[in-house]
Amino acid sequence: FIICQFVTRHTGPETALPSSSCTDCDTTGGDVITVTVGATVPTGFEHTAAEEVKEKIGVDARISKDRGRIYFPITTDKLFQVHLLRSVDNLFVVVQEYEHYQFSESKEETLIDLQQLASKLPWTNALEVWKLNSTLKKKKGHRRGGNGSKGKPNSEAHDATAVDNEQQELPQPTAQTDTCSQDVEEATPEAKVIKFRVTCSRAGDKHSFSSNEAARDFGGAVQEFFEWKADMTKFDIEVLLNIHNNEVVIGIALTEESLHRRNISHFGPTTLRSTLCYGMLRLCKPQASDIILDPMCGTGAIPLEGAIEFHNSFYIAGDNNDMAVNRTVNNICHIQKRRADKGSASGLPIDTVQWDLCNLPIRTSSVDIIITDMPFGKRMGSRKKNWDLYPSCLREMARVSRPGSGKAVLLTQDKKCFAKAISRMGGLWRKLHTVWVNVGGLHAGVYLLKRTGALFGQTPEDVYESRGPVERQEKDDTELS
Amino acid sequence: MKLLTHNMLTSHVKGVIKGYPLLIKATEVKVNEVEFNPQFVSRMIPKLEWSALVQAAEELGQRQDLPSDLVPDYETNEEFLKKVHRVLLEVEVVEGCLQCPESGREFPISRGIPNMLLNEDEV
């Protein structure tokens, strides 16, 4: 290996990495350049993410055919704004995009093409943005998500023959309240050799090669070209090679760990990632002074994201489970402490109650929005329990919702059971919209419902009172036999 | 438990007709700073049971000079809104219990969490 100093490297006009002694400048060379930034978002919430980009950055985002990704232009003087986005999991700067990449017939030729690509790509601007981004993160004292691990540190490639190549969400148990400061030693670029890795994701049935092979060969060519050092775990630059059928995108990562678990320090078995919570909240458009209930809050991920991002509303998080309510309170306290440490008013507009969601201790017609992640029956609860649970839930939620203006945003994987339950509730709930999402590898639906104007106690659904425990047990058995 | 939440909570013990408002017996109360938003407060007031709020604040010794009836034009009365803000969001019951006004049944509050679960026979 040749060890080269970052500042003195010049292999050609395309790859000259700008040296800058000014770490306070917003731009490295003084000129503002425009680049395309890509973001990965929870599948199904591409439109909500694009909405957020329009709102916070003021540009139109393009939704990729490869689900779970959006692209938008940004100028380097506004780069910091991408880190304010709450609906994105990961961010990267695009080096080059090919909408219709022509793959060669054989694997050998294809891989050679990829190798040759490395020296032909327009790296300069993307690398400038990467560098700028690194200084931004250092200044911020970049806050990490609650998830301590780096996700998949050993795999650089993942294949999918299906179009959807979403990562598996594994429950991550963590006990520490202070998981925010995970120190990654960032070498000052001026002093040491650059370390990098290539991550390739490939989807499509017609490719002659695997993502491992592409990553290996492309990575090898990149290494040779820049004379960087390959390092799978302690890298400065992560080069992304995304291949989705004939769409090929080469990018450089701007986020190290996925931001999707940012608020949670105390996980439960089914904690939803914050980006998904944010997407659900945006769907129901919380207004000032809305009373928002999560009657099955688990670890409180949804109401907590709401209390932070849509803080002009008031959140009541509830669950029947001891551990759940305690974890929710722990998560709230963790955030409040972090805010207090920064010197701001720490109190959040959220409370936690232990309750039975089929018998809510809440005044009738007093809630504006109900938002929750309903038990899927795979990791928690059971399909059998859902048959009874869903109708009782929907009925009780209708009772506490404000007639005419109340809304519900419900996430569930048990689509069949939900469809059946909702079909009998036409007098109380109207379906407005459904978003199909992927949660931990399971296909689920986010249903947006509107409460009808009918007062509770007057429609056929609610006059048919829930029967006593013995009758319910019998019905349970006969219905499913 | 904040008093805004208390304002929404009701007893649902079987057979009880007037389970609202729940009486508060607090053994530990704390006051937490929450950012003041006048619009939030003024739009929340119509959603509240005002007398229940005053009664609850009284029970905690935090009423100060909150009036029994709403003042007219409270929307623009910032001083008034600040008092309401404090009582709604900043005062918290950490330990104690809530009591059903009709049946006397007590629901414990621990770490700020009211436990409203009923036993089999109470449902």
UniProtKB/TrEMBL annotation, chain A:
The keyword Cytoplasm applies. It comes from Sphaeramia orbicularis. Residues 164-181 have a biased composition (Polar residues). GO terms for cellular component: cytoplasm; tRNA methyltransferase complex. GO terms for molecular function: RNA binding; tRNA (guanine) methyltransferase activity. This is THUMP domain-containing protein. PANTHER family: THUMP DOMAIN-CONTAINING (PTHR14911), TRNA (GUANINE(6)-N2)-METHYLTRANSFERASE THUMP3 (PTHR14911:SF13). Belongs to the methyltransferase superfamily. Residues 151-254 form the THUMP domain. GO terms for biological process: tRNA methylation. Pfam families: THUMP, UPF0020. InterPro entries: RlmKL-like_Mtase, RlmKL-like_Mtase_CS, SAM-dependent_MTases_sf, THUMP_dom. Keywords: Cytoplasm, Methyltransferase, RNA-binding, Transferase, tRNA processing. Its main location: cytoplasm. The lineage of its organism: Eukaryota, Metazoa, Chordata, Craniata, Vertebrata. It is found in: Cytoplasm. Residues 138-181 are annotated as: Disordered.
TrEMBL record, chain B:
The gene is trmt112. InterPro entries: Trm112, Trm112-like. It holds the Pfam family Trm112p. This is Multifunctional methyltransferase subunit TRM112-like protein. One of its GO terms (biological process) is rRNA (guanine-N7)-methylation. It is found in: Cytoplasm, Perinuclear region; Nucleus, Nucleoplasm. It comes from Sphaeramia orbicularis (orbiculate cardinalfish). GO terms for molecular function: protein heterodimerization activity. One of its GO terms (cellular component) is perinuclear region of cytoplasm.
